[in-house]
User: What shape does this take?
Amino acid sequence: MLTGYRYRLTLTPEQDEQCRTYGDICRAVWNTALDQRRQAVKRWERGQSNPFPGYAYQCGQLKEATTEEEWLKTVPAQTLQQTLKDLDAACARHGTFKVHWRTKHRWKPSFRFPDGKNIQMERLGRRWGRLKLPKLGWVRFRWSRAPRGAVRSATVRCESGHWIVSLLCEDGTAAPEVHAAPTTSVGIDRGVTVAVATSDGDLFDRQFQTSKEAERERRLRQRLSRQRMGSASRARTRAQLSRLTGRVRDRRADFQAQTAKPLCAKNAVVVLEALNTSGMVRSVKGTVSAPGRGVRAKAGLNRTILAKGWHAFEVALANAARRTGTTIVEVDPAYTSQTCHGCGHVEPGNRESQAVFRCKSCGHTENADVNAAKNVNAAGLAVSACGDLAVGRSVKQEPPSRLAPGSGWNPGPLKAGRTSK
Assistant: This one.
């Protein structure tokens, strides 16, 4: 099983400058190759038949360019080829015209050494180790934990003003085919008041940013908007802002990993709502001059959704499920927050607030997020019971006896979703 290990590097000034040069060259190769692909698509739309610059074609061109341009020889050839491979995968996944340019001020320098045979690692002491990377030589890093298995690749990235190396290792373990508790399941509702609520009644949340940090971020962003592009003062402000937001991002990632691991360890099936987070925080028909309808009204909700990290928590669950054999099931989120889990009555007024759910029909009162999580879990059990886990298919079998017809449960609005393991 492939596992990632992240460490903070301690570079010399020469190595720091060399890493920034590597990042700039990889950014130039990415933008040049992306422009080639876009131009080829435009020629094809005009009816001109030319060879499409795929990965193999661009690797050949890169080899020819390396013999003519000396600055390309600064970076290991495999690192540049890996940049083209990443671009090819991004274009296949999102489309050529939806892949972003890597701009100088918005992109964080990053490059990868894909051949683990060229990477050596030694431990220097209790807290320090060192890596030997191609053309960079030996670099020191904080030995926070010991990596397990053989190193397959190393990715170097600048985050929050620090250089980070991510080692991808093959530890030799295999994912279990059956969960230790195969009959257990849990439904999860992601909210804005509480980050994670489960059908067992557990509420998981954490303060990712203090009030003082939020005020400091506001002031830094205000200062940044008034500074001249390309100035040294603007670069210092961007560095301060990056360090501040990096601490918040690390806390959020730590919370998501620590929450996802016990949930997957205890449950064979984890049911989530199939949420399109990027679509939920997008304004409607927006342009540069007219951002869209309801932008100001949704701004606070959008910030809260992004601050809770809904999509990142889903990724953390999928990562933890690999080691426990847990199945991740996603169901349609429609009406899960308006449906009473006790009697099945559906009404928008059932949810009085973000925290209180009170059924207008039977008077059932419960935490609103927990009630929604129970509905999500019930929909997941219904999907799992009939073995119909594909997107868009209908539930062909009745849910368990607790939700049998006559109990008042109405599974109509809750449709089947997709699953992953």
About this structure: Residues 25 and 165 are 18 Å apart (CA to CA). The chain has two domains: 1-174, 178-206+259-284+297-421. The longest helix spans residues 232-266. Residues 1-174 form one domain.
